[in-house]
Amino acid sequence: MIELVSAQRCIACDKCIKVCPTNVFDRGPDGVPVVARHDDCQTCFQCEANCPVDALFVAPYTHPVPDNTTAHDADALAETGLLGSYRERIGWGRGRTPGSRSAIGPALDPAGANVITS
């Protein structure tokens, strides 16, 4: 479930608003998206995956995490490496490569038909 939009990192590009399949976000008065319909979040990670500056954190749970966790603290999430970790894992973002090929599936041969084992 979407847990954090970091106002310090956000560049107000609206990509998260555009890709959200359940219209969870509204644009805030300062241009930074706000989670307006938290219960509608399907935990699809599209907002986090498409954020070019790693300003979003989606917790892999279908219910909101308790307020006393680091999921609501941008500095703690950045310090622990969680902020932006999903995009890094899937290899999205300038200069990134997938952190773990097994996280996105096995490697395929150039024809795309057979799994390559090493």
From TrEMBL:
Keyword 4Fe-4S tagged: yes
Annotated InterPro entries: 4Fe4S_Fe-S-bd, 4Fe4S_Fe_S_CS, Fe-S_Ferredoxin
Keywords from the named record: 4Fe-4S, Iron, Iron-sulfur, Metal-binding
Residues of the 4Fe-4S ferredoxin-type domain: 1-30, 31-61
Highest rank taxon of the organism: Bacteria
Pfam families listed in its UniProt record: Fer4_7 (PF12838)
Official protein name in the record: Ferredoxin family protein
